[in-house]
Here is the input.
Amino acid sequence: MTSTDNATDFDIIIIGAGFGGLAALKELRGRGFNVRVVDAASEVGGTWFWNRYPGLRVDSESRIFCYSTDPELLEEWDWHERFPAQPEVLKYLCHVADRYDLRKDMDLNTRVEAARFDKDSCRWTVMLEGGRSYTCQFLLGATGVLSIPMDPDIPGLDTFKGEWHLTARWPEEQPDFHGKRVGVIGTGATAVQLIPLVAGVAKELVVFQRTPNYVLPARNYPIDAMTSRSTKDNYEALWDMVRENPGGWAFPPAVRKFDEVPPEERERICEAAWEVGSMGLMVTSFADLMTNMEANTFVSDFVRRKIRMQVNDPAVGEILCPKSDNPIGVKRVPLGHQYYEAFNRDNVKLIDVSSNAIERITPDGLQLADGTSHDLDVIIFALGYDAFTGALSRIDIRSTSGESIAERWSEGAVTYQSVAMDGFPNFFMIGGPQIPIANFVPTLEAIAVYLAESLSIMRSKGVKSVEVKPEAVERYVKLMHELTEVTLFREGKRLRSWFQGANKEGKPASPLLHYGGLPMFLEDLAKERTAGFPSYVFQ
Here is the structure.
């Protein structure tokens, strides 16, 4: 079946045209489903369309930040850097949309406002902005992991006489910072990428840091023809490695435990991983890095020593070092591209606001709690996201009992295998809460393939409605809490990690990620399908 532009009735509607939504459209349409994708943006790309701040790059290697199921696509696409910048990622996603003629099945510039399920017809009615509506049997949410930014909430912002920008809503026309006094609030992954570029052009850059980060070296480089050819010739083995690695990275998983390694060898192991760059230190050093505090402390101390070595001023270096009660990996570990070196510039100043908070924005800059003022021409807010739950919670999707997703998640996210919730028949998620803490693109693609295969099986059996059992959701959520408690990720709430939703004021802290690793997650999906979906009820 093929959709038409004026059709209003579909087998499946997908909300979102990012990596997850495009993968789902391709897989489902290839199995004969009549599919429509709806996205508020004017182009495909999701996060990679909306975000365009200076320095934005992938934290995964390009060779595995792509779709894996079509050998011809892998063969024809050439990445130009180990860690490509946003324009190249967006170009890739546009290429995918063009190659498979996906845009004919999309409504761009279209926002989904609400959705209701009819028990009698077993179909969803999807209400669109502007009064239009579609109907479908299955509704898929592919709204993105990091798509709803945290807005600045500092008194006095409306009085500021200069310009201010939120990194997640960056203007299409890049602002000019030459000769200006710029302040950056935040030192998360976004700021880590942004700061070196702004430092290179601003008259003065003042960075306001509440919590320092562990930043690993990316070791970016251009990809030459020989490297590209070697990658393409070895993709089968490369994807096997990705699916066997707990984090979905192109590294053999660490098998040695910290206590099994002689003390004199531990430093060498970390040093070798540091030189390789990427996430090597996190995934190849010690198998028990996130379960053994002694191992984690060793690696954390190693990185702190590296930070001090990169920063000329010892006092600044100390401020940039995470505290000893902050285990590495509990919060996102970004990759740096000359991040620490930026603080060696004469025009860059670091302000610690952990104990001297920003009190207000003034017409000329901002003021700290102790009364200290900083005059600024531009303020950049790099404040993070309402991760995982933010986007779907903003759409008025109601369960059969009338409960919205926002209400359902009001005390913490609950799912089954990140893809379903009881009370929401024929509704599935790609990139929903409680997916593995892993390289997102292979994970999203695997979920898209799983759902496409599963819905094909259900269609062949004449299924009209499918709903996960409440006890399956309860069992899965219990597992998420257990995996959190047996790992150092249990510290996430105390450290305000978005992995737990603790970065957003008022958001209930609960596990938003699966800490058992990608292989465990994929194996559980396969078991569910092979066993005939015992966790679901069919009509």
